[in-house]
Amino acid sequence: MCGRFLGSLLLALLLSTPAWAETVTLSPSKDNTIFSESGSLSSGVGNALYSGKINIGPVRRGLLAFDVSSLPTSAVIDSVQLVLTVTNTPETTPRLFRIFRVLADWGEGASNSPLGMGAPAQTNDATWANTFFPSSLWSTQGGDVAAAASDSTDVAGFGTYTWHSAGLASDVHAWTSQTSPNYGWMLIGSEAVTRSVREFSSREGGAPPQLTIYYSVATPVNQTTWGKIKIRYR
Length: 234
What we know:
Layout: H1 2-15, E1 19-26, E2 30-35, E3 41-42, E4 48-53, E5 59-65, E6 76-88, E7 95-101, E8 119-120, E9 130-132, E10 136-137, E11 151-155, E12 159-163, H2 166-176, E13 185-188, E14 198-201, E15 210-218, H3 226-232
Antiparallel strand pairs: 1-15, 2-5, 3-8, 4-5, 4-14, 5-13, 6-12, 6-14, 6-15, 7-11, 7-13, 9-10
């Protein structure tokens, strides 16, 4: 009886498929800021992303996308961390910043707005009206995003902030498994509150956004039979 049990256990171990934990950290493949006061303003290659409401009323929204094609489609996404760095702010009261999955592709052109007031959009820039300036439009001005936020966190003053949730992991899993197109995320601040705007380092800045993905990959093993096992260990 004991021999049968040990044999069954050994067979189970040999037939099992171990999973190996992996980690990858990515910078954005593209990012941009869109500006509510005009459908022809953008900041594609600026060194900052802006999100929130400025003191005179208009709002900014940040777009960022990551190329996750290096991960295998079979990867199990264990967890995800998105880290952004605040490089300027008009106040330090904690404000809620939400991350939404974007539902349409968008572009990063050559516009550059170093002061956060927007620059004339260049070819293929995302704007408040356009996915790709000047021809392609969002279905809804301000960007097409999922109805529910994937994650949210309070952002106060200068420093780094982390978004870390099952929602973000679900988004990344959908992208790596190719069950949903990867159009990245939109960062939306507290748009009902003036002076809630935050400046974050963009991918062109000194502290670019970082997406760290913790995942597992199953490693297949050669199947065998109990007869072969007995021969091997005689």
